């Protein structure tokens, strides 16, 4: 069949989709270009199969745009088309990076050098978007394969590449890459990783010569060079190695000084009694957190069936290796109970995020949010500097606008200057450090990097030293282990330390609502929700509470003119202060197809003499009120799309996208009630597993909390007991 006939089929298929015509036209234009072959010849069979299968939604999404060059690079689903991560979107990004560096440094390519790293990811089409023959050469492609392609492009332009042997056993974490760039004096770097995203995703995070990522307007200049690329130059990998354009890094040359840097962050080198359980969730975390703790003298227990380096994350619930998700740490908690651990740590695949579970005095292991982790590390760092008389003259704490005010209040308690309204991303913290290095000033703060004490963001990211420029799980892990040792010696736990923080500056509780909407239409719906929040004003109601003040980061009067379009995108953030001490913030994610809503409730300081019962009572009351505000807020967000989302629709896992969430509410529960009346338990369980299979790995666990909320709404007792057993709600 000729290309024209295939395109006619696509035109007819696209006409069935209720989506903006401009997106259809753009997708069609890109499809024609990719079907014509040339650089896209390897994808032709896959494209034609998608057309034969009439996967119009997928074709439209994969082709309606070139994957945006977003927060530090490109990240998204591996797949066929310009809006997916593949050799085309990677190689054009790398070529653009080379062109940008040449312009930035005024150098020719052969005068430049970069460091390339990669994580453990492998594409197996777990989402089942393609049939096996459709995925073509993409099935089984690994981060290390993408890294080799990137190295070929750098080398093809004459740029010298330092990298781990791509088919060896060394995987370099993101923070170690930041260190390596600085240690080697390279001009930039690239890590092939999609961080904590779905296993089918991948991406490339680009770094500058300081080991951080570009911020506006420089990131837009970088993006413009990428957008201008049509073809990339290549040199065969083996040829580039022979020509010394690709140089394999010796593990000890980089790794030993990197670990030594983290060990030097120790504040209490004799506090080593804490028992530490660590899960690297099949990623690189044992190479930074594990090696740092062991080198510092701690005994570390690894979770045996999660320690293998495996990019399918086989033994992680839902297949999502993200320490922000409490379920990912269940196996580690089981081990902690056996060994009597004093803290449980987890890392994401590229080991820049840290998760924490701690015991209370009664032996219950409790998950802490990124904000609570940050508060403990802030308190540890500042309090020990104060005790030792080592506090900088102008101590500086740096954080983002969406981060809880708990660590802010603690830092101020120790007399710190706080820069607390940064946009989302540690790259903005790194930019503060760069400004101090270059200008001795950032906004109204004057000083240098020796004044920097700590920086953090709510998404489990902490930077404890200015000698790195991206978040690192290793530094905070060491400080937390030392604090746990000190608390243990006093007959206390890390949870007691959190209670002390609440006594001193007030209980701060946070919740987050993530609404995932995939596909081309998702961008439009996310924009509608954000516009709905943006139109709210003082005295309107949000989450059932009256709005006291609004801070829209798009307001050029209060936040200055946009320095670039990337600055405008990053500033798509609205912050609300509500009555009764609530904060609410809304923003579209820069790395995933979702809108994120942050909610914080702040109580009054209870005083150092408040007992645990007093703290528990105040916490429970605040938590119940916060849940009500959060539910009302989430329902308000869905209402902007004309949707009435019941509470049980809110209780399913935040990992579920809107399509599956609506299916659960509108169809599945009706079918579940019918099948529960007719089928015995074993058949009901098998049916539910099969019915929910498209939701993702461990589908019953993804929806069990939603099922529990639905059952409490008035389902008969007989059905309730059978359904509870089906979803293991009695455990």
Given this structure, which CATH class of the largest domain is correct?
Alpha Beta
User: CATH homologous superfamily of the largest domain?
Assistant: Alpha-D-Glucose-1,6-Bisphosphate, subunit A, domain 3
Mass-distribution shape: globular
**Quick one: how many beta strands?**
23
Structural class: alpha/beta
CATH overall fold name of the largest domain: Alpha-D-Glucose-1,6-Bisphosphate, Chain A, domain 3
Determine the mean pLDDT.
94
CATH architecture of the largest domain: 3-Layer(aba) Sandwich
Main-sheet strand order equals 1-5-4-2-3-6
Helix content: 40-55%
Largest sheet: 6 strands, mixed
Q: Detail the poorly predicted runs.
A: none
Q: Count the DSSP helices.
A: 27
Overall structural domain count: 4
- The amount of beta strand, in percent, is 15-25%
Termini separation? 57 Å
What does this structure look like?
With about 725 residues, this protein is α/β, with parallel strands linked by helices. The protein has 4 domains: about 180 residues, Alpha-D-Glucose-1,6-Bisphosphate, Chain A, domain 3, CATH 3.40.120; about 240 residues, Alpha-D-Glucose-1,6-Bisphosphate, Chain A, domain 3 (3-Layer(aba) Sandwich), CATH 3.40.120; about 140 residues, TATA-Binding Protein, CATH 3.30.310; about 70 residues. The protein has 27 helices and 23 strands. It has a 6-stranded mixed β-sheet with strand order 1-5-4-2-3-6, sandwiched between helices. A 6-stranded antiparallel β-sheet has the order 18-23-22-21-20-19. Strands 8-7-9-10-11 form a 5-stranded mixed β-sheet, with helices on both faces. The longest helix has 28 residues. The N and C termini lie far apart (about 55 Å). The relative contact order is 0.08. The mean pLDDT is about 95.
């Amino acid at each position: 069949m000729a290309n024209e006939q295939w395109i006619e089929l696509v035109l007819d298929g696209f006409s069935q989709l209720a989506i903006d015509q401009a997106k259809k036209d753009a997708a069609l234009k890109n499809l024609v270009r990719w079907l014509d072959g040339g650089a896209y010849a390897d994808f032709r069979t896959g494209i034609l199969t998608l057309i034969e299968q009439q996967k119009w939604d997928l074709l439209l999404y994969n082709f309606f745009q070139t994957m945006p060059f977003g927060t530090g690079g490109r990240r998204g689903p591996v797949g066929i088309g310009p809006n997916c991560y593949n050799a085309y979107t990677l190689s054009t990004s790398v070529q653009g990076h080379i062109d940008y560096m040449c312009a930035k440094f005024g150098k020719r390519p052969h005068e430049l050098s970069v460091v390339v790293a990669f994580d453990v990811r492998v594409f197996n089409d777990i989402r089942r978007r393609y049939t096996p023959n459709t995925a073509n050469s993409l099935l089984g492609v690994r981060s290390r394969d993408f890294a080799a392609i990137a190295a070929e492009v750098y080398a093809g332009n004459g740029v010298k590449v330092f990298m781990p042997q791509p088919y060896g056993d060394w995987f370099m974490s993101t923070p170690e890459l930041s260190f390596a760039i600085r240690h080697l004096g390279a001009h930039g770097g690239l890590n092939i990783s999609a961080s904590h995203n779905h296993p089918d995703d991948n991406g490339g995070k680009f770094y500058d010569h300081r080991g951080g990522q570009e911020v506006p307007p420089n990131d837009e200049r970088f993006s413009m060079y990428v957008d201008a690329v049509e073809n990339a130059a290549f040199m065969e990998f083996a040829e580039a190695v022979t020509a010394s354009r690709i140089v394999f890094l010796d593990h000890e040359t980089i790794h030993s000084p990197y670990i030594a840097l983290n060990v030097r962050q120790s504040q209490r080198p004799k506090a080593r009694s804490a028992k530490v359980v660590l899960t690297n969730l099949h990623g690189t975390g044992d190479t930074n957190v594990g090696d740092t703790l062991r080198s510092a003298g701690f005994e570390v227990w690894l979770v045996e069936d999660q320690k293998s380096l495996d990019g399918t994350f086989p033994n992680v619930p839902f297949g999502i290796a993200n320490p922000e998700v409490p379920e990912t740490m269940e196996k580690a908690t089981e081990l902690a109970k056996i060994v009597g651990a004093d803290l449980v740590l987890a890392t994401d695949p590229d080991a820049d995020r840290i998760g924490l579970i701690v015991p209370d005095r009664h032996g219950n292991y409790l998950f802490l949010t990124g904000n609570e982790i940050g508060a403990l590390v802030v308190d540890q760092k500042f309090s020990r500097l104060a005790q030792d008389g080592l506090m900088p003259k102008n101590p500086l704490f740096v954080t983002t606008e969406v981060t809880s005010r708990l660590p802010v209040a603690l830092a101020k308690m120790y007399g710190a200057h706080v820069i607390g309204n940064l946009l989302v991303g540690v790259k903005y913290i790194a930019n503060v450090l760069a400004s101090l290095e270059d200008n001795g000033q950032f906004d109204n703060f004057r000083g240098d990097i020796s004044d920097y004490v700590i920086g953090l963001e709510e998404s489990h990211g902490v930077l404890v030293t200015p000698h790195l420029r991206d978040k690192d799980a290793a530094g905070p892990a060491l400080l937390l282990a030392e604090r746990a040792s000190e608390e243990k010696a006093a007959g206390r736990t890390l949870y007691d330390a959190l209670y002390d923080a609440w006594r001193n500056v007030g209980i701060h509780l946070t919740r987050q609502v993530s609404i995932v909407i995939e596909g081309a239409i998702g961008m439009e719906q996310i924009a509608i929700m954000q516009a709905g929040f943006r139109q709210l004003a003082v005295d309107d109601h949000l989450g059932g509470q009256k709005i006291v003040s609004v801070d829209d980061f798009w307001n050029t009067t209060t936040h200055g003119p946009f320095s670039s379009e990337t600055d405008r995108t990053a500033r798509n953030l609205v912050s609300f202060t509500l009555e009764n001490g609530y904060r609410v913030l809304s923003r579209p994610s820069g790395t995933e197809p979702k809108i994120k809503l942050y909610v914080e409730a702040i109580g009054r300081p209870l005083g150092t003499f408040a007992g645990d019962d007093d703290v528990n009572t105040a916490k429970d009351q605040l938590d119940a009120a916060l849940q009500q505000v959060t539910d009302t807020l989430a329902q308000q967000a869905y209402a902007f799309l004309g949707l009435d989302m019941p509470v049980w629709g809110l209780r399913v896992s935040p990992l579920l996208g809107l399509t599956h969430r609506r299916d659960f509410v509108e169809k599945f529960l009706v079918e579940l009630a019918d099948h529960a009346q007719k089928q015995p338990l074993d058949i009901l369980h098998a049916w539910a597993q099969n019915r929910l299979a498209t939701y993702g790995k461990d589908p019953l666990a993804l929806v069990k909390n939603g099922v529990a909320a639905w059952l409490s709404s008035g389902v008969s007792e007989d059905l309730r007991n059978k359904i509870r057993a089906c979803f293991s709600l009695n455990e």
